[in-house]
């Protein structure tokens, strides 16, 4: 940033800094005013710049060979002339412009290259796009912001925003980006930056800790301010939400927190958390006043802290990994091992020789072989590491390379089951408290007298050194990184020794309980007459490799990636069972798969005919468990019952657990279960997927032997062929827009020729109605039809619609028999045509409609038994599961909308194995092309204004609003909020994470004003009641907060909940509370909060009006990935609906 006579001249880098932290700009100004000094460029930084220039020159040479008419803008000209020379070069139509200088008001920048393209603009029948080089192989959001800024400035010159922009990384790979996917986020940041600078003298801001601190050049300056003020954010373990709550109660310093007489309820902070941070403050304040380092040893809960420390063994290994960040997962390039060899401690490094997959795999193989040999010799040994990274990284490597190196998966699983990995960070955190600001290894080393000597001080420096090594292969960089890694390993060893020395004698050494369920063993059992799963997978992969040729290489490679999909896919759920058992009840409150910290109300349960109901009270938190879910005690690792009900009330939620009565062999009742007084319940062991694996492998086997001829619908889908439809020319458009869609859809499905079809149904387009109509038509024609989905609820919804349509007067002569594989323990449903059962039917000929989850259709009994299989909500069904299901049918129908709520695949898969079936078929498109499937293009829910936003933002402008939707209207009298459309109401608050009283107040007042207002549906008039309004929030805590306020006046009539609760529902008016104050206060990752799909679902519940309340500080934040930028960019589109409603 340059300052000349009080005027600011900014660059894209300045904008990046401002968005990450406003105080960086304050520091830049202080530096300009010579109030503070800046750290001089280090030797490494200078070398990095030189390497970047060489990289740029290399590509200049390559581009000049490709584009003969080129020009370089001289850098020794003044700014005005450089800009004018750039414009003249553009007007003359040069193919390549090097060092183009661009200006837009106070913003300026130098693009490495402008390259001419044939898109017409004001310049003529051509225009330009931005190309920039980066020496790093790890492209970051700041790089995309830079080229977005250049593209925006370029667009203003040629009066056309470039469609694409490009980055060439350090490995010479060219990456393209759609400018429109980043421009709104850029413009918002630029607007706020310019506004900030224009009021800089009035801006009174204070530095706060944020995720950018470790990357910031001014970190030491902020540290000085905090130290001088003894600011409360210095207290280890505090988060932003707690700090804001403390400040609101005039607790601004460490000393004030240490001495406060306030209690947790005064501050609205969890009592256990408050005790910890207050005790921590007292330790730090004692150090500040006495100058003495202080450590105290805690009395840990049973099973935590010192209780998890194993007895030292001669074979123990101390382990540390160095990884290089990438877009998908880190590249693990160094494994460090410190252990005893013949009684002497030694260090061993495993270094990836190249920055490629093969080198990473090779050192992983070497590591696993080392572990295997080590534990054969020392069966009682353990692997010690500090923080969860190492264990997580090894899990991912084992999964990624499981097909090529299944032994890695087997050995690592054995280590995990035997609890051989010991995280000393978790033990230390639960066993000691120190006077340091954090619990990093380097911060606590002083307490066991470990001194470092390596040049590298922190992990970020090792990443930079590794980038230098990749580019130069200079052995010094490699040596520096290895020395740093070795010190981490030695420090981990000395920490273990320190903890062993201080472990209370009253606490026994940790020994893994023998009764822990060894769930994986059943999948791995190998007998003389049965081949192991691993051997089957290796054989399939080898045979697929032989089948590869130039034409099918990519196809076969993706089949290889699918081998073993289901086993890999459930691994994270299996690992979670063990990880959760290590965490405290408080820590598990952040795990949405759990309901944590449940306190038993009474030891005496309520007795009913079939069992007992125990009631637990639990604090506000986000969770996915619902009525009917199994109840799994995460610390005991056992199932204890099922969810009878969940009653939500602010801070007083009730979980009712049903435990069935059980009898012994003689028919005598067992005693009433003795449930724990404090419990966390969550997701248990994943179900077996053996039949899924067999079904998937059956298809792959057929491809190897017959090119998949026996599974044509699967082959058509995997080859992304257009559907094969009788009497329709190849590549024809499937639907005539001038004719009625439903009858055409029925006709297309009837004429499907052993193929597949996709039906995409955006919000309110009648996806369920259309599917039911088609299924009834097929059954009338004597076809046998299957219906499946990921959830029993989705299946049931479609079956209800089928029964409804089958009972219409026009179908009075029609009858059929249906079978549904019901969920165990589910309440009985009264059906007219369908039978519920827990067992499969003996004779498939008895029924014409079958319904159940994927476990039903992968059963060998169902193989090729159906004429059609309908997969509903296919955007939530993995491609591997779709293939396994589809082996049951001659035709496959994929129904859903990948732009609504999806089912993320957590495991690390390669290629298409990580996609859902809809995501795979659509291949990154938002809508299904007209020749590939049916797009239900008319919504009967959304009025024109809401539909316009939803259509343009999510459906490539293909969705239209039916006249029926526009016959509805409301008269809210909420000026300036109108009576139709989307409205953003900005609000300001600080420190709100999962709950905002400010937004809850605004929702309550707005709700009250809307009640009783007039609505019209055609000629019919009425008054808006609570059931006509839906209130949506991202978190249960905020939903409960709002519900409690509204229930005081409207009893239980209000519809308040999270997005997931309301998919498929609608209301005349939707109020959305985004709750969180800023990105630093988010309780979960940005990809959840800013999810494009969740935003689509939230707004598209509204028939007439959607009011979305959010703090605009959410949109000023550094992003961790380029994908996050795209999500936030989509959210920025809502700013055009901003109102000053108060």
Describe the structure concisely.
This protein has 37 helices and 40 strands. It is an alpha/beta fold and 1142 residues long. The strands form 9 sheets. Strands 26-25-27-24-28-29-23-30 form an 8-stranded parallel β-sheet, with helices on both faces. It has a 6-stranded mixed β-sheet with strand order 3-4-5-6-7-8, with helices on both faces.
The low-confidence parts are 515-528
User: Based on CA inertia axes, which overall geometry fits?
Assistant: globular
* Global Rg: 31 Å
Structural class: alpha/beta
Number of helices: 37
Strand order of the largest sheet: 26-25-27-24-28-29-23-30
β-strand amount? 15-25%
Question: What's the pLDDT, averaged over the residues?
Answer: 92
Biggest sheet character:
8 strands, parallel
Measured between the Cα atoms of the first and last residue, the distance is 37 Å
The amount of helix comes to 25-40%
Give the number of DSSP strands.
Answer: 40
Description:
The chain is an alpha/beta fold. The protein is 38% helix and 18% strand. An eight-stranded parallel β-sheet has the order 26-25-27-24-28-29-23-30, sandwiched between helices. Strand 17 and strand 18 form a beta hairpin. About 1% of the residues have low confidence.
């Amino acid at each position: 940033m340059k300052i000349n006579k009080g005027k600011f001249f900014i660059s894209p880098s300045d904008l990046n800094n401002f968005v990450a932290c406003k105080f960086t700009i304050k520091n830049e100004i202080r530096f300009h005013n010579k109030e503070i000094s800046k750290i001089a460029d280090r030797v490494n930084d200078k070398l990095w710049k030189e390497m970047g220039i060489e990289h740029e020159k290399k590509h200049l040479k390559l581009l000049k060979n490709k584009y003969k008419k080129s020009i370089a803008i001289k850098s020794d000209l003044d700014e005005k002339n450089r800009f004018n020379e750039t414009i003249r070069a553009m007007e003359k139509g040069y193919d390549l412009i090097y060092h183009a200088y661009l200006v837009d008001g106070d913003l300026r920048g130098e693009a490495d290259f402008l390259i001419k393209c044939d898109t017409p603009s004001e310049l003529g029948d051509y225009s330009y796009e931005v190309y920039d080089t980066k020496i790093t192989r790890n492209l970051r959001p700041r790089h995309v912001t830079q080229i977005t800024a250049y593209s925006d400035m370029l667009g203003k010159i040629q009066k056309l925003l470039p469609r694409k922009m490009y980055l060439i990384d350090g490995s010479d790979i060219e990456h393209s980006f759609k400018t429109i996917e980043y421009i709104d986020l850029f413009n918002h940041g630029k607007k706020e930056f310019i506004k900030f600078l224009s009021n800089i003298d009035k801006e009174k801001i204070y530095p706060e800790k944020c995720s950018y601190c470790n990357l910031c050049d001014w970190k030491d300056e902020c540290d000085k301010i905090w130290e001088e003020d003894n600011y409360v954010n210095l207290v280890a373990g505090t988060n932003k939400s707690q700090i804001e709550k403390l400040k609101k109660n005039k607790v601004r310093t460490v000393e004030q927190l240490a001495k406060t007489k306030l209690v947790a309820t005064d501050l609205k902070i969890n009592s256990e958390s408050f005790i910890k941070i207050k005790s921590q403050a007292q330790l730090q304040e004692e150090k500040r006043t006495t100058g003495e380092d202080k450590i105290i040893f805690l009395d840990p809960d049973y099973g935590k802290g010192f209780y998890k420390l194993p007895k030292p063994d001669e074979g123990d290994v101390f382990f540390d990994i160095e990884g290089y960040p990438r877009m998908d997962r880190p590249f693990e390039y160094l494994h460090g091992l410190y252990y005893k060899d013949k009684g002497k401690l030694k260090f061993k490094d495993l270094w990836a020789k190249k920055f490629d997959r093969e080198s990473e795999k090779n050192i992983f193989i070497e590591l696993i072989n080392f572990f295997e040999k080590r534990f054969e010799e020392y069966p009682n040994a353990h692997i010690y590491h500090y923080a969860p990274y190492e264990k997580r990284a090894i899990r991912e490597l084992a999964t990624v390379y499981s097909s090529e190196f299944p032994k890695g998966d087997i050995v690592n699983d054995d280590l995990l089951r035997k609890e051989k990995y010991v995280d000393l960070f978790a033990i230390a955190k639960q066993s000691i408290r120190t006077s340091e600001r954090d619990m990093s290894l380097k911060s606590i080393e002083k307490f066991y007298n470990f001194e470092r000597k390596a040049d590298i001080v922190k992990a970020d420096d090792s990443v930079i050194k590794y980038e230098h090594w990749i580019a130069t292969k200079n052995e010094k960089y490699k040596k520096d990184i290895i020395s740093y890694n070795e010190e981490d390993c030695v420090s981990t060893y000395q920490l273990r020794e320190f903890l062993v020395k201080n472990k209370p004698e009253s606490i026994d050494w940790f020994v893994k309980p023998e009764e822990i369920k060894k769930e994986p063993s059943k999948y791995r059992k190998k007998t003389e007459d049965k081949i192991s799963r691993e051997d089957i997978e290796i054989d399939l992969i080898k045979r697929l490799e032989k089948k590869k040729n130039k034409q099918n290489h990519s196809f076969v490679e993706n089949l290889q990636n699918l081998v073993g999909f289901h086993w890999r896919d459930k691994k994270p759920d299996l690992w979670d069972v063990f990880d959760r058992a290590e965490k405290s009840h408080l820590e598990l409150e952040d795990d949405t798969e759990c309901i944590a910290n449940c306190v038993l109300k009474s030891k005496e349960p309520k007795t009913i005919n079939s069992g007992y109901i125990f009631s637990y009270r639990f604090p506000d938190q986000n969770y996915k468990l619902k009525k009917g879910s199994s109840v799994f005690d995460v610390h005991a690792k056992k199932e204890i019952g099922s969810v009878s009900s969940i009653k939500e009330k602010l801070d007083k939620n009730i979980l009712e657990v049903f435990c069935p009565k059980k009898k012994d062999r003689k028919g005598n009742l067992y005693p009433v279960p003795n449930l724990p007084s404090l419990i966390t319940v969550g997701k248990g062991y994943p179900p077996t997927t053996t039949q899924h694996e067999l079904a998937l492998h059956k298809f792959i086997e057929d491809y190897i032997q017959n090119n998949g001829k026996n599974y044509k619908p699967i082959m058509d889908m995997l080859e992304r062929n257009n559907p094969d439809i009788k009497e329709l020319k190849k590549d024809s458009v499937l639907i005539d827009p001038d004719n009625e869609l439903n009858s055409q859809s029925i006709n297309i499905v009837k004429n499907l020729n052993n193929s597949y079809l996709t039906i995409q149904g955006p919000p309110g387009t009648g996806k369920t109605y259309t599917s039911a109509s088609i299924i009834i038509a097929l059954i009338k024609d004597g076809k046998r039809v299957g219906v499946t989905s990921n959830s029993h609820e989705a299946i049931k919804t479609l079956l209800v619609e089928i029964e409804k349509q089958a009972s219409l007067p026009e179908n009075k002569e029609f009858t059929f028999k249906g079978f549904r594989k019901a969920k165990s323990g589910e309440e009985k449903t009264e059906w007219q045509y369908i039978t519920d059962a827990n067992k499969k039917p003996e004779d498939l000929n008895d029924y014409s409609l079958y319904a159940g989850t994927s476990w039903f259709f992968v059963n060998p009994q169902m193989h090729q038994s159906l004429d059609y299989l309908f997969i509903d909500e296919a955007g939530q069904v993995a491609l591997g599961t779709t293939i396994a299901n589809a082996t049951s049918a001659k035709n496959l129908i994929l129904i859903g909308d990948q732009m609504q709520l999806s089912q993320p695949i957590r495991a690390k898969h390669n290629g298409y194995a990580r996609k859902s079936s809809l995501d795979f078929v659509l291949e990154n498109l938002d809508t299904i092309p007209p020749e590939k499937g049916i797009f239900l293009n008319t919504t009967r829910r959304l009025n024109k204004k809401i539909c316009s936003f939803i259509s343009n933002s999510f459906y490539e402008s293909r969705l239209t609003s039916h006249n029926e939707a526009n016959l509805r209207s409301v008269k809210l009298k909420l000026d300036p909020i109108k009576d139709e459309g989307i409205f953003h109401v900005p609000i300001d608050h600080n420190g709100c994470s999962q709950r905002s009283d400010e937004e809850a107040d605004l929702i309550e007042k707005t709700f009250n004003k809307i009640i009783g207002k007039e609505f019209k549906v055609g000629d019919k008039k009425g008054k808006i009641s609570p059931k006509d309004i839906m209130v949506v929030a991202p978190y249960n805590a905020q939903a409960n907060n709002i519900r409690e306020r509204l229930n005081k006046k409207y009893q239980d009539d209000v519809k308040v909940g999270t997005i997931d609760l309301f998919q498929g529902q609608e209301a005349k008016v939707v109020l959305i509370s985004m709750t969180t104050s800023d990105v630093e206060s988010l309780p979960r990752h940005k990809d959840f909060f800013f999810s494009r799909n969740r935003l689509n679902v939230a707004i598209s519940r509204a028939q007439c009006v959607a009011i979305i309340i959010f703090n605009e500080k959410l949109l000023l934040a550094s992003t961790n990935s380029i994908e996050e930028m795209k999500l936030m960019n989509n959210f920025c589109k809502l700013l055009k609906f901003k109102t000053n409603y108060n």
